[in-house]
Amino acid sequence: MQYEPVKQTLGKLFSRKPWTRKLFYRLLDILLLRTWHIHKSLKAFARSGKKGKSLHVLDAGSGFGQYSYYMARKFPDWHITGIDIKQEETEACTRFFRQAGMTNASFQQQDLTVFEKPGAYDLILSVDVMEHIEEDKKVFSNFSRSLRPGGMLLISTPSDKGGSDVHHHDDASFIEEHVRDGYAAEEIKEKLTQAGFRPVKTAYTYGRPGSISWRMSMKYPILMLGKSKAFLLILPFYYLLTMPFILALNIADVRQKHRSGTGLQVKAWKPPNPS
Asked: Cβ distance 47 to 72 under 8 Å?
């Protein structure tokens, strides 16, 4: 199915006032399991001697801006630049952050296949983006050039172990806008190594508990909204019933190490300059 119309509907619904957008971010933080994994990795990055320093971060494919908002609040010394190919998204984020009085984040419309800013960033975050971009090698090279030596790239993307809800060769991707169903761990590791990253570490997310949670928290509601916007009236009651199970499954997924999973989280470092 096409996911963008559903996203646009939700974006317009929750962007009317600053408080509704903050509520939207909070709901995404709770419902999206990938957010739990990303927050965990960002906290680990901050603990690795980075906290308190004035770091420059690129939110590559910032979308609604929820990760930029999290970083801007959690790490006020960080300077976040959010870029997205959709101008309406960056304009909405710019407007919200201005209204919220947050000055350590800015947004601009850019294409990741051509955007680079040599040696500008200590951290690049890319969540649910690479599965939408055919020319991924170009993007990885741009990321490498844009990172400072010793900087880290953090990617969250579907894996080839059932990502995009594709479990067999004849399955269609659940999200029609995806240009690839998911990455094999070795494939993305090889592409990032070719782009100049060393080391590259991969970890599966959305193991058995996460896959169940995803169906309950995202797949079924999205299918309902895809059929009719009237399901927006039912969703609060649906989540009221399912939320305890979703939270328990998300906690289990984040705490476990998975031998396989439908999601893939990648950490890659730009080698430091030789001393």
From this structure: no
* Dihedral pair phi/psi, residue 181, rounded to 5°: -70, -30
Count of C-beta atoms within a 10 Å radius of residue 8? 13
Measured in whole angstroms, the distance separating CA 214 from the mean position of its chain's CA atoms is 15
Q: Which CATH number fits domain 4-207+261-269: 1.10.460.10, 3.30.2310.20, 3.40.50.150, 3.30.70.600?
A: 3.40.50.150
pLDDT in tens, 78-120: 999 999 999 999 999 999 999 999 999 999 999 999 999 999 9
Query: What is the token pair recorded at 244?
Result: 């305890």
DSSP 233: G
Q: What is the pLDDT of residue 43?
A: 95
Q: Would you state the structure tokens that stand for residue 80, as one six-digit string?
A: 């976040």
Decide if 214 contacts 164 (C-beta within 8 A): no
Task: Render pLDDT for 154-187 as a digit per residue (tens, 0 to 9).
Answer: 999 999 987 645 444 554 444 556 778 889 999 9
Given a contact cutoff of 8 angstroms between Cβ atoms, the answer to whether 83 and 107 are in contact is yes
List b or e across 234-243, with b for residues whose CB sees 16 or more CB atoms inside 10 angstroms.
eeeeebeebe
Task: For residues 219 and 165, give the distance between their C-alpha atoms in angstroms, rounded to a whole number.
Answer: 9
Structure tokens at 153: 């790239």
Beta-ladder partners of 190: none
The residue extents of the domains of the chain are: 4-207+261-269
- Cα dihedral across residues 208, 210, 211, 216: positive or negative: positive
**CA separation (Å) from 64 to 89, 130, 177, 218, 254?**
6, 16, 17, 16, 23
| Pairing outcome for strands 147-158 and 200-205 | unpaired
